[in-house]
Design a protein that fits this description.
Its EC number is 6.3.4.19. The chain is built from 23 helices and 24 strands. By secondary structure, the chain is an alpha+beta fold. The strands form five sheets. It has a six-stranded mixed beta sheet, with helices on both faces. A five-stranded antiparallel beta sheet has the order 11-12-15-14-13. Strands 17-20-21-22-23 form a five-stranded antiparallel beta sheet. Helix 4 packs across helix 9, helix 7 packs across helix 17 and helix 19 packs across helix 22.
Length: 736
């Protein structure tokens, strides 16, 4: 939220009493001021310069009255975007709202779309539109942010949209300058996801628009991004939980569909929609602060011609088309060449993949998707690590091992280098990630939101099946980051003046970025270490643990053993009746009131199982064991039997994959259980483990489509449609 509050009046001077009186006479601009009247200031538009205030802008400004705003056009385009995304008015939708013109315009169009037409929805008993929730995130970084969030909530509520203010929790302390913007963004999307999951909402709308895409293009160009990064944010994508809560199982994979319906509208369109809807918005003066990269780029872009903006959008459109094509190719390659094991690792068949015959752009994206899945990182892997792995697959032919991007790659035993294992690396500097919740259920819940989200994605895909893209229609497949602009100029996508202007902007931001990157990296690394060290690893009975974002784990002690356990004991000639059974369950190494700890498997665990498997009750009895040892023989016998069976299973698991398996130990460090191979010390110890990665292979659903015949609001000219490939089996000939 922005700082403070300024109420913009007309250029004539007004007293405070006159202003308050005018509000009371105008319902569209009225709200309660008493709780924070100390924040109010009166200024003329020309004198707004305070860096610590909101500016509340009225839709009834003179400029808005001088022109007729065609709201029907905006509503028609918005409705067409909803059809493309497969979203219907009855779907439950959340809106990310800050109170600025972008998010208020999103509220105007979404509310109108929901309540108009043959499939419109009604209102609930409180007068709010059914199935629509605005989420206002209070980052809590400033004392006045709470009051500002309340102002926005009051305004949006008056539009008939139910609002919820979500407060950010910073368990490791508030982020410091240099890491602030990234940390705030990550926290904001985490809060969005958590609120959606709590309310069983599967769709989230965000108010990104065409000007945001232009700013992002220049920003990423200055960071040496390739064509995939220059494509900007997609029309639809999925976000996944960064933290685990008891309600985060609502969608089957924990994902929320993120939709950006305003990507074909400009910033000026945002103002027009707000005025056309007679709604107020707030302006954040910090958006004028030139210390922030986005603000500097925005200022420079605003000074450029409409033809420049039009040509820049055409470049972005071409990049999005390229990304859509590359994504389809990579998903096809994954389907053919990758096998996922339920112990958390992947196997790549190099004979099917043929990495030496695949162009760099496909292989790099392929590796990025596979490594993101195995490492369960929120963002895809980029940079030098990917190039190192690409060379590894092509030149070394997987005869050696390599660790990169949180993954450990090695030859699959017995494959003679024709297959490579991709396992999660535990040899990292940061502590292993674990998250907890007080309650946990491993039943497969069939929530309506999960089915609804799946149906939406299926509808979007079916809507694009008629669009087929040929490789000859895709640009920049061979272009490196330095040559994308050159290729765009050669193809007459951009003119010489536009080319030169982009280069100037790129050079300016590149120089600023290089001067700051060292200090920012140091701060970011420190912040990551602080966050990673904030979690413990103790697990109490009944508590649920999410181990390394892939294994759901819980345990408890039962007073009675189930039939399967008793059957195993009979098969191995073990008697646990009467007193021996009771002693086993109360005096074993687990203990009735123990708290267990979770870690990954280490080499000494294998050696312990091997030693335990050689335990013999008869041999110990012959050696004259004490009476206490005779009592403990029952549960040691069970542990020995369990160890023998576990060793058989472990031998079938590659060594590299074993290292990331979760194990339970007691507070003295003694191995208690390896649930993935069914080893446990006590037959009354009930442990459940489920391989449940947060982020699916491929990173979730994503679409970069631009609607056919839609126009760029900057120039009014048709944009090139970004067409989706057919779902037919991939023709590998173009990969050679």
């Amino acid at each position: 939220m922005a700082r403070g509050l300024i109420l913009l009046s007309s250029p004539t001077s007004l007293s405070a009493n006159t202003l308050l009186s005018s509000f009371s006479k105008n319902p569209s601009t009225s709200f309660k001021l008493s709780p924070f009247s100390h924040l109010l200031h009166l200024q003329k538009p020309s004198s707004v310069s305070s860096p610590c205030c909101f500016t509340v802008c009225s839709s009834s400004s003179p400029s808005s009255q001088q022109c007729s705003i065609d709201m029907a056009k905006y509503r028609q385009v918005f409705s067409r975007r909803m059809d493309m995304a497969g979203i219907k008015p009855h779907h439950r939708i959340a809106l990310g709202v800050s109170g600025g013109p972008d998010s208020i315009a999103l509220c105007v169009l979404t509310a109108g779309w929901k309540t108009a037409g043959a499939n419109s929805v009604g209102t609930d008993s409180s007068g709010f539109i059914d199935g629509l929730l605005a989420i206002i995130v209070d980052h809590g970084l400033r004392a006045e942010s709470k009051d500002e969030a309340n102002i926005v909530r009051n305004r949006v509520s008056q539009m008939g949209i139910r609002c919820e203010i979500a407060n950010c929790d910073w368990p490791s302390g508030k982020p410091k300058q240099g890491h602030l913007q990234k940390a705030a963004r990550d926290m904001r999307y985490q809060v969005f996801h958590d609120v959606c999951a709590k309310h069983q909402i599967g769709v989230l709308f965000i108010a990104h628009h065409a000007d945001d895409q232009a700013e992002l293009f220049i920003l990423r160009l200055s960071r040496n991004s390739g064509v995939l990064g220059l494509a900007g944010t997609p029309f639809t994508s999925q976000i996944f939980p960064m933290h685990t809560h008891s309600y985060c199982e609502v969608p089957a994979n924990g994902g929320v569909l993120l939709v950006r319906p305003l990507l074909e509208f400009s910033k000026e369109d945002m103002y027009k929609i707000c005025r056309g809807g007679t709604e107020e918005w707030v302006e954040d003066p910090t958006n004028q602060n030139q210390l922030f990269t986005r603000n500097r780029i925005r200022r420079e872009l605003n000074h450029l011609s409409s033809s420049f903006k039009s040509e820049l959008q055409r470049v972005i459109s071409a990049c999005r088309k390229t990304r859509a094509y590359v994504d389809h190719v990579c998903h096809s390659l994954i389907h053919q060449a990758v096998v996922i094991k339920d112990l958390g690792y992947a196997v790549i068949d190099l004979q099917i993949l043929c990495p030496s015959k695949i162009e760099d752009i496909y292989l790099l994206k392929f590796l990025s998707l596979v490594l993101q899945f195995v490492s369960q990182r929120q963002r895809q892997i980029r940079g030098s690590a990917l190039k190192l792995l690409m060379d590894y697959l092509r030149t070394i032919q997987c005869k050696n091992c390599i660790t990169a991007a949180g993954c450990y790659l090695c030859p699959d035993p017995g494959s003679k280098g024709s297959r490579v294992l991709v396992c999660c690396s535990v040899d990292i500097a940061l502590p292993l990630k674990m998250e907890f919740s007080e309650t946990c259920s491993f039943r497969q819940h069939e929530y309506h939101v999960a089915n609804e989200l799946e149906k939406i994605i299926e509808d979007e895909k079916s809507n694009s099946n008629h669009l087929v893209l040929d490789a000859s229609d895709v640009h920049f497949l061979d272009a490196n980051p330095e040559s994308v602009l050159d290729e765009a100029k050669r193809l007459n996508i951009i003119s010489e003046p536009t080319f030169n202007s982009i280069l100037v902007l790129q050079k300016q931001e590149t120089n600023r970025f290089r001067s700051k990157v060292g200090a920012i990296s140091d701060l970011a690394s420190k912040h990551e270490v602080e966050n990673a060290t904030s979690s413990g690893n103790s697990l109490q009975p009944g508590q649920c643990c999410y181990f390394m974002d892939r294994f759901m784990l819980t345990w408890k002690l039962n007073d009675k053993m189930d039939r399967d356990v008793l059957s195993d004991l009979v098969d191995y000639g073990m008697d646990l009746s009467g007193e021996a059974r009771n002693f086993c369950c109360t005096s074993c190494v687990v203990g009735r009131d123990q708290v267990l700890e979770v870690r990954h498997m280490i080499e000494s665990d294998w050696l312990y199982l091997a030693e335990l498997s050689r335990y013999s009750p008869l041999e110990n009895s012959a050696n004259g064991n004490t009476k206490m040892m005779e009592k403990t023989a029952s549960y040691l016998h069970y542990a020995s039997v369990s160890a023998k069976k576990a060793l058989v299973l472990l031998k079938s698991i590659p060594v590299a994959a074993r290292r990331s398996l979760p194990v339970l130990i007691n507070q003295q460090g003694k191995l208690i259980c390896i649930p993935s191979v069914n080893f446990k010390h006590c037959p009354c110890l009930m442990v459940h483990v489920e391989y449940k990665p947060k982020i699916p292979l491929g990173g979730g659903h994503s679409s970069s489509r631009i609607p056919d015949g839609s126009g760029c609001s900057n120039c009014g000219k048709p944009l090139q449609p970004t067409m989706k490939l057919s779902t037919q089996f991939i023709d590998r000939s173009f990969l050679v």
